[in-house]
């Protein structure tokens, strides 16, 4: 019986291993998995009752979005997310699609913010089937808006944070989530409900 | 040579770990786990579950065959497939299949609130359960969503359900998928 060279066995094993790893990546839908990260990595610079720092940022629609333009018209949910094409973020923004009617019923809109550049955000949102709310880029000056709110992490991406700003431009709720976990939509909707009740 | 052997052993272990991340194999017993009761009484009645039961096992479903859809309310493929799932559910409720095959959707990592939103958004009428803490998802090898598992229930009390068919990813059409399920049920 002819002996199989040990190198051949090793090569076959490596190929099978690669196949297994590729299959595991497919399960994430081709998204980059950053693994477990430090839950939070910044210090808030705003608090409930403060006037929300204003910003004007480019949106994936090609327009610019200014927070203060919503004053007197809409409550605003600022949804900071760490990065495009990552698993948790790619569930968090579709969650606002699912909850759109509940959010709009509270006379609110979402502004999605990340430190990705506009082309990356555009392609990511298309890959998710689109989102109904404006998505803006805090890419340049890098992370300036996240920094103004105190949600810019050491590695240059924003926290996973939700901030509710009322029609007067005042911050009414802040939640900096564990970056590894998808925020609970029910809690956000309940907070919006309380906001309406106070007015 | 010993270094080569060590490398090969390590690779074999890693390979086994990678292959463990997969849906159960056809012919294997379905993992023995309890699921949260469906979100509606109509769903519990359809599955033939006792009134007021907070949880159940697949073996408790009053049908010889059960199709389980593992989904996530925020998965874009699950959103896109929702209308087809409803069509499949209605087709299975027809004369030919009624009582023989039941369908159940389980939301991986979803809460009852999220599943209710999903049901209302897509006007779904099938029974829907939740796997809030990913217990079932983990037992099923942490598959992507949607995934499908067809099981045959045991004919006797205390037996285990057997996996007949698994699929990770969307189906082409409700009609073709139902034909596929029927063929697996005949085997």
Which features would summarize this protein structure in a list?
heterodimer, A: 199 residues, alpha/beta, Glutaredoxin, 2 domains, five-stranded mixed β-sheet, two-stranded antiparallel ribbon, 6 helices, B: 187 residues, two-stranded antiparallel sheet, 7 strands, 39% helix, 19% strand
Structure description:
The complex is a heterodimer of chains A (199) and B (187). Chain A is of the alpha/beta class. Chain A folds into 2 domains: 1-30; 56-198, Glutaredoxin, CATH 3.40.30. In chain A, 34% of the residues lie in helices and 18% in strands. Chain A has helices at residues 6-27, 89-98, 100-105, 118-127, 144-149, 185-198; strands at residues 56-58, 64-66, 75-80, 108-114, 135-137, 160-165, 171-177. Chain A has a 5-stranded mixed sheet with strand order 5-4-3-6-7. Chain A has a two-stranded antiparallel ribbon with strand order 1-2. In chain A, strand 1 and strand 2 (64-66) form a beta hairpin. Chain A starts with 5 loop residues before the first helix and ends with a helix. In chain A, 32% of the residues are buried. By secondary structure, chain B is an alpha/beta fold. Chain B has a single domain (23-186), classed as 3-Layer(aba) Sandwich (Glutaredoxin), CATH 3.40.30.10. Chain B has helices spanning 2-20, 41-47, 76-92, 112-122, 135-139, 174-186, and strands spanning 35-36, 55-56, 65-71, 101-108, 128-131, 147-152, 162-168. In chain B, helix 3 crosses helix 6 (174-186). Mean pLDDT of chain B is 88; it is low at 10-20. Classes of the chains: A alpha/beta (199), B alpha/beta (187). The A-B interface holds A 6-7, 9-10, 13-14, 16-17, 20-21, 23-24, 26-29, 91-92, 94-95, 97-99, 102, 128-129, 182, 184-186 and B 1, 4-5, 7-8, 11-12, 14-15, 18-19, 21-22, 72-76, 79-80, 109, 111, 113-114, 117-118, 121, 142-144, 168.
